[in-house]
Amino acid sequence: MSDGGSLADRWREARPPVAGLHLDSAACSRQSYAAIDAAAQHARHEAEVGGYVAAQAATPTLDAGRAAFAALAGMTDAEVVYTTGSLHALDLLLGSWPAERRRLACLPGEYGPNLAVMAAHGFDRQLLPVLEDGRLALDDAAYALGDDPPDFVHLTPVASHSGVVQPISMIAKLCRELGLPLVVDAAQALGQVDCAVGADVTYSSSRKWIAGPRGVGFLAVEPDVMRRLHPRLAAPQWSGSFSVAQQLEFGEANIAARVGVSVALGEYLAFGPDAVRARLAELGGISRTTLADVPGWAVLEEVEEPSAITTLAPVEGADPQTVRDWLLAERRILTTFAGVQRAPLEMTAPRLRISPHADTTADDLERFAEALIAATAATAT
């Protein structure tokens, strides 16, 4: 099996050595030296010339980050707003949505915190039909959406609790045919699968597959949708003329982190999105093949699923939280405990999740499989 050759080597060499084994990129990837240095250099510049002067000087870098995000989302005409993360982006969008329109369609596997934001803004949910693995049943969805159309479709192409990749391009085509706006939560998808499908809104965080710093996100909105939004914190008349996008971006900001993610996006594009996505899909296949015969656990995704996320369900009583803690404390292997709150409308029991990035090797995944066997035995009650 390939280890990705020069791409894996270059990805590894671009960042500090890992203290153990990092299999948690779906939560927070490892930043590169360049992204870390860019953020630190901006913070130093703030100390030298003042925060607002430094922010003005960083405008070209920040604009480059907006353009890179728009390109990856396939929304080059969109206006892009910096946020503090995905939830903040969704909160801004739903808080600005026309008051008379408060009904959306989403998958049963929708991210739990997203559901909370939707409820806080008074949105009713229409759950879309899915197959046994949680993938959208496209023909049934077409009938349901055509028969009883919502205000928009909210799609999470890759969920927090599963490596299943939704048929994002076909959903986008369906929404266009039905005249329904498509809002894409690309928090797990951006950088891992192709998101350039012509959505009306795409939002994401920076810290996952793009490997930027924490506390930064993006909200990209096509002009037709942007014109319909009414920002919750709208600019008063006496303040001058501000666009809707500028109003959505009001507030204090960590400019250094935004500079860091702009650099991370540039690095990602330089590596080549197709190459990175192919490498991540390859690692997902290696992971599932390697873990298929580990006693006490069931791999929930098909081997060929084109994502790097693999989720494991205990079948003999192991506790995923205890196993996760043991792996970190005893072997310095970082994984994710996925509790049912991640997808409360779909999950019935917690899982263990791994999410290797491009620099992970087949040997690393063999090492994890051996450690999982040891952890399962050591934590058995």
Q: Describe it for me?
A:
The structure is a single chain. With 381 residues, this protein is α/β, with parallel strands linked by helices. The protein contains 14 helices and 13 strands. It has helices at residues 5-13, 33-49, 51-57, 59-73, 86-96, 112-120, 138-147, 168-178, 223-226, 244-248, 255-271, 273-291, 320-331, 362-378, and strands spanning 21-22, 79-83, 103-106, 124-127, 152-155, 182-185, 201-205, 217-221, 297-299, 310-314, 333-334, 336-338, 351-354. α8 links the parallel β5 and β6 (182-185). The two termini are 37 Å apart.
How would you summarize what this structure contains?
The chain has 381 residues and is of the alpha/beta class.
Reconstruct the topology from this structure.
Layout: H1 5-13, E1 21-22, H2 33-49, H3 51-57, H4 59-73, E2 79-83, H5 86-96, E3 103-106, H6 112-120, E4 124-127, H7 138-147, E5 152-155, H8 168-178, E6 182-185, E7 201-205, E8 217-221, H9 223-226, H10 244-248, H11 255-271, H12 273-291, E9 297-299, E10 310-314, H13 320-331, E11 333-334, E12 336-338, E13 351-354, H14 362-378
Parallel strand pairs: 1-11, 3-4, 3-5, 5-6, 6-7
Antiparallel strand pairs: 2-8, 7-8, 9-10, 10-13, 12-13
